């Protein structure tokens, strides 16, 4: 017990507060560089291959539970966390921009000392990953693989682009539509989240995911949505130098053409588009976890 107490004090001094979750798991908090407490969970063998899952906009880490259970059982050390304002993490009145979320990700990687980690980002989690890669080149050595799940290079379509460019990039909204949605977030949220699933999703599952979304305030999520929508990541893709898998869905709210375009910009990247029959929605990892988990595992373990 004395040794455990000393170890607990040590991690707290490093800005990490940890409590045992079960034999191979840890739940705790990380304090970011600007003083915000983020909740994290780790499961699986402590010496297992590292994999980190990052959620999308308004989502909570528990939505990765089908992946956490699978990969922990397969011998991986799985890390998930709630971004600021999301899930069970602290919701401060500041910092709802992708650059700050990338700084938070860098804190997670460094304070949990993740090494040779596969980063799996979903939707806005891809944007956070791209911002991290761009802003923190000194930390890139911590990542061994990237899995980028269903995020366009830029959401806002520039009205001055040549004809066809918005379709090529999978850009979803005009600038005006982005601000209109943000201003009416309370009324638009349910239909927006429903559009991320196929009609076959159960109502119980949909309502559970919607409840996770509602843990974040509309005001903070609107500010983040606007910032996220106008970020343009096209110049980052050619500078990604580690093995990358890009995943999309045939019936996703994110047009698959934009996902395929990204895969073509990242040197050596692989891609997979879930078909309609494979429940290729924006949430294909929830609706078809067997296929998704197998695909990711095969990619990161192949020789």
From TrEMBL:
Record bears the keyword Translocase: no
InterPro entries tied to this protein: AB_hydrolase_1, AB_hydrolase_fold, AB_hydrolase_sf, Epox_hydrolase-like
Any single Gene Ontology cellular-component annotation: membrane
SUPFAM superfamilies xrefs: alpha/beta-Hydrolases
Name of the protein in its database record: Alpha/Beta hydrolase protein
Presence of keyword Signal: yes
Alphabetically ordered keywords of this record: Hydrolase, Signal
């Amino acid at each position: 017990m004395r040794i455990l107490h000393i170890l607990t004090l040590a991690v707290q001094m490093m800005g990490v507060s940890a409590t045992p979750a079960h034999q191979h798991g840890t739940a705790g908090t990380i304090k970011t560089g600007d003083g915000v407490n983020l909740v994290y969970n780790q499961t699986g063998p402590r010496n297992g291959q590292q994999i980190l899952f990052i959620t999308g906009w308004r989502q909570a880490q528990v939505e990765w539970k089908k992946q956490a259970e699978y990969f922990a059982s397969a011998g991986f050390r799985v890390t998930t966390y709630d971004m600021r304002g999301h899930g069970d993490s602290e919701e401060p009145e500041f910092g709802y921009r992708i650059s700050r979320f990338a700084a938070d990700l860098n804190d997670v990687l460094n304070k949990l000392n993740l090494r040779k980690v596969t980063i799996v980002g979903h939707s806005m989690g891809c944007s956070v990953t791209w911002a991290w890669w761009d802003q923190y080149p000194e930390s890139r050595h911590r990542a061994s693989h990237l899995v980028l799940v269903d995020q366009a290079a830029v959401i806002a379509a520039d009205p001055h682009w040549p004809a066809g460019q918005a379709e090529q990039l999978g850009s979803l909204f005009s600038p005006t539509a982005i601000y209109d949605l943000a201003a009416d977030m309370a009324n638009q949220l349910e239909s927006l989240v429903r559009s991320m699933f196929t009609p076959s999703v159960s109502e119980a599952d949909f309502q559970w995911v919607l409840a996770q979304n509602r843990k974040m305030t509309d005001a903070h999520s609107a500010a983040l949505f606007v910032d996220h929508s106008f970020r343009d990541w096209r110049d980052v893709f050619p500078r990604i130098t580690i093995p990358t898998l890009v995943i999309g869905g045939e019936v996703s709210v994110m047009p698959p053409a934009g996902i395929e375009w990204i895969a073509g910009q990242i040197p050596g990247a692989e891609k997979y588009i879930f078909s309609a029959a494979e429940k290729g929605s924006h949430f294909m990892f929830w609706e078809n976890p067997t296929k998704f988990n197998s695909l990711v595992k095969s990619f990161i373990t192949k020789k």
